[in-house]
């Protein structure tokens, strides 16, 4: 949507808040934000739903691909190249390309953003698995562990720091990209910003919630990581 298309919409928004001097003068209005905070709850929930869906599905797909590449070395190059190519496609372009195939709304936004997360997650998963010391794996084999036991009891636990790092990057990146999902016909905080993009109070409120969501999500994953990796806490003290 270009500026010429946004202008009539902006005029309507300005007229609806013209009775209040602060919003009408396009100032930063804490009082207006507090009084109108409810309008951001549904977009915030839509933002959270799409982000969680994208990260969970992207994590599952990337995990399966990483295990395949770890077990079958020939699969590493084609999977890595494919995820890199998907990562280079601009998200807005992907939204428009997918719309003739799956329609507008949740589906094109989710598909495009899942494809975008694969490179980040796959790269971190495989890096973590490759960084497991060879002598540790040899010792595990010497103790009689089967390939599956070696993977689940030794390699994956030791790869968890890289896995969590990839999850944190993928989650915060997805939260930012979901702000563009309104181009695919989905809602979220980006749509709320676009609805009155010329009003500072609206942009600060919706954009601030987006940043707050990213910060809380990162801290939540970091907290889970600290619980899942107690030996790192011991090493840090």
Architecture overview:
The structure is a single chain. The protein is mainly alpha-helical and 237 residues long. It is built from twelve helices and no strands. α5 crosses α7 (106-130), α7 (106-130) packs across α9 and α9 (147-178) packs antiparallel against α11. The termini are far apart.
Enumerate how many helices there are, as a single number: 12
User: How much helix, percentage-wise, in residues?
Assistant: over 70%
Assign an overall shape: elongated
**Radius of gyration (Å):** 22 Å
Mean pLDDT: 88
Q: What share of residues are in beta strands? A: under 5%
Q: What string, H for helix and E for strand, traces the elements in order?
A: HHHHHHHHHHHH
Distance between the termini: 52 Å
| Biggest sheet details | none
Poorly predicted residue ranges? none
Number of strands: 0
Give me the secondary-structure category: mainly alpha
